[in-house]
Amino acid sequence: MLQVTTTIPATRDVIRKWKKDGYSVGLVPTMGYLHEGHASLIQKCREENDRVVVSVFVNPTQFGPGEDLEAYPRDFERDRALCESLGTDLIFHPEPEEMYQDPHAYVSIDTLSDTLCGKTRPIHFKGVCTVVSKLFHIVTPDRAYFGQKDAQQLAIIRKMVQDLNFDITIVGCPIIREADGLARSSRNTYLSPEERQAALCLSQAVARGQQIIAPGIASQTVIDAMTAVISAEPLARIDYVSVVDALDMQPVDHVEKNVLVALAVYIGRTRLIDNFLYEVAP
Ligand code: PAF
Fold first, then answer.
1. Known catalytic residue: 254?
2. 134-154 pLDDT, tens per residue?
3. Mutational test site, ligand 1, from 31, 62, 271, max ligand atoms within 8 Å of CB
4. What is the bridge-based pairing of β-strands 169-173 and 143-147?
5. What is this structure's pTM?
6. Is 257 exposed, middle or buried (0-12, 13-18, 19+ CB in 10 A)?
7. What are phi and psi of 133, to 5 degrees?
8. Any bridge partners for residue 254, and if so which?
C-alpha cells in the first residue's frame, strides 16, 4: 500500500524497516507534476527493486533568481494517483523547511557544470547536487533513476556518486516523447497551443542532427544544420546547440568519440531542452 511521508525521520523509519527485512530500495527523484517520462522511470524502478520510493519536491535551490520556482506546476493528488497506479510504495513529499535550514551546506560538482545548461543557469546544478545528495542520504537507495532528457544532470550525478563514494547504482532511462516527437517535460504545460506547435522544432532539430552526424564530422556542421531547423521557427530563440564529449561535457571540434548533442531553446518564455547521444565505434 502506498505510504506518504513528509518528514525525514518518518521516511528513515520506513526505509530502516524495509532494509531490516532485506528489501532492495529504488528511488525516483522528481519535482512532481508527473508525466509519462516519470512513469517510465517508476516502472523501471518497480521492475528492479523490492521497494519503490518517489520523491516529490520542487527544490528551491536549483532555481535561479527570476526563474519559474513559484510558477512551477504542482498537483500532488494527481501525482499520488499516478504513483499508486504504478505500484509505488512510498512518496517522500517534504516542505522546503524540512529539507533546508538556512544557512546550509551545498554540494557542487564544478567540472561538468560550466557548459550547456550550467552556463545559462549557473547555480542550477549546485542545487540539484545538493538536493539529490540529501535524498540519497535520507532514502539510502540501492538504485536511483534519472531521465536522459536531462543529460547533463545525469552525467553530473554519475560523477557526484563516483567522486563522493555513494554506494548507489545510477540508472539512466531513455527520453520519452509525445506522439509528434516533443520530449515530455513538466514545463510543456506552460506552452500555448501555438507555442506547443512551435516547440516541435526541438525534436525536428534532433532528428536533423541524427541524420547528418557521422564519425569525424566537424561539430560546427552538425550545429549549423540543427540551428537552421530551429531558426526557421519564428517563436523560437536558441540558448545553445552544442556537441560535447559525452563524459566530461566539454565541447569537441570533431565527432571522434562518444558525444552528446544537446540544445536548449526558448519557445516564448519557456525554456525547453532536448538531446541525443552519438556513439562512435572504437
Ligand atoms: O530532474 C528533476 O526533476 C530534478 O532536477 C531532480 C533530480 C528531482 C532534483 O530536484
1. no
2. 999 999 999 999 999 999 999
3. 31
4. parallel
5. 0.97
6. middle
7. -60, -45
8. 218
pLDDT at position 282 is 74
Is 37 near ligand 1, meaning CB less than 6 Å away?
Answer: no
3-state secondary structure 39-68: HHHHHHHHHHCCEEEEEECCCHHHCCCCCC
CB 152 within 8 A of CB 116: yes
Q: Given 38, 93, 104, 124, which residue is catalytic?
A: 38
- Tell me what the mean pLDDT of segment 102-116 comes to: 95
- Nine cell digits for residue 250: 566539454
Is 132 close to ligand 1, i.e. is its CB under 6 Å away?
yes
Grid coordinates given for 186 = 513538466
pLDDT per position as a tens digit, 39-81: 999 999 999 999 999 999 999 999 999 999 999 999 999 999 9
Q: For a pLDDT cut of 90, what percent of the chain falls above it?
A: 99
28 CA distance to ligand 1 middle (Å)? 9
Q: Is the dihedral of CA 266, 268, 269, 273 positive or negative?
A: negative
Preceding omega of 65 cis (within 30 degrees of 0): no
Average pLDDT taken over every residue of the chain: 97
